[in-house]
C-alpha cells in the first residue's frame, strides 16, 4: 500500500513526523480503541491503554523494519499493551488475570459507555471464560472482522492455529450461552 509507505517515510522524517503522526492517529485511533476495548472492557482503561499504545508507536516508529504491515505492527503493540495492563491490574489487586476479566465484565453493566443489552453482556461474560489467546482471536475475528492472514502477523501465530483457536472459542461460547 503506497499510502502506508508514504506515511511511514514521513513518520521517520524529523520534519514531517508530528504531522504524519496526527494523520496516523486519525487513521487508526478508532480501530485500535475498539481492539483494546474488546480486551480490557472498560472505556476509561481502553483510553489509557490507547494513549500508552500511541506513545510506544511514536517512540519506536524508527525501529519498525517493515517486515509486516504498519497496522499489524500497531495492533501487536496495542495487544501487548492491553495484556500488560491486565497483568499489572491483576498484580496490583493481587488476583488472577481471569478475575480481572470477570471484574471488568461485572463493571460493564454500570459503564455509561457500554451500549450493549443483556445479550451483549452475556456474550462478554462468555468471552471472559476463554483462555487469553482464544479471547484475542475471537474478538479480532468476530468484532473486528480481521482476516486470519493479518491476525497471523499481529499475533505471530500460524493461520491454522488461529482458525483452530477461533473454532474452539465459538464452541465454548455457544456452550456457555446455551446452558441455563
From TrEMBL:
Coiled coil: none annotated. Pfam families: Sigma70_r2 (PF04542), Sigma70_r4_2 (PF08281). It comes from the Bacteria. Keywords: Sigma factor, Transcription, Transcription regulation. Residues 26-90 form the RNA polymerase sigma-70 region domain. Residues 121-173 form the RNA polymerase sigma factor 70 region 4 type domain. The keyword Transcription applies. Belongs to the sigma-70 factor family. ECF subfamily. This is RNA polymerase sigma factor. It comes from Flaviramulus multivorans.
Amino acid at each position: 500500500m503506497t499510502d502506508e509507505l508514504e506515511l511511514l517515510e514521513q513518520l521517520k522524517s524529523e520534519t514531517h513526523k508530528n504531522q504524519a503522526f496526527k494523520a496516523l492517529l486519525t487513521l487508526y485511533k478508532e480501530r485500535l480503541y475498539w481492539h483494546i476495548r474488546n480486551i480490557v472492557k472498560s472505556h476509561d482503561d481502553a483510553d489509557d491503554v490507547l494513549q500508552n499504545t500511541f506513545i510506544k508507536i511514536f517512540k519506536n516508529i524508527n525501529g519498525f523494519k517493515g517486515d509486516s504491515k504498519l497496522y499489524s505492527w500497531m495492533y501487536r503493540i496495542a495487544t501487548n499493551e492491553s495484556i500488560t495492563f491486565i497483568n499489572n491490574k491483576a498484580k496490583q489487586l493481587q488476583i488472577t488475570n481471569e478475575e480481572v476479566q470477570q471484574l471488568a465484565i461485572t463493571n460493564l453493566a454500570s459503564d455509561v459507555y457500554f451500549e450493549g443489552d443483556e445479550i451483549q453482556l452475556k456474550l462478554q461474560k462468555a468471552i471472559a471464560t476463554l483462555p487469553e489467546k482464544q479471547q484475542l482471536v475471537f474478538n479480532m475475528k468476530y468484532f473486528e472482522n480481521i482476516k486470519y492472514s493479518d491476525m497471523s502477523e499481529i499475533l505471530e501465530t500460524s493461520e491454522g492455529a488461529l482458525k483452530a483457536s477461533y473454532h474452539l472459542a465459538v464452541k465454548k461460547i455457544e456452550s456457555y450461552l446455551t446452558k441455563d
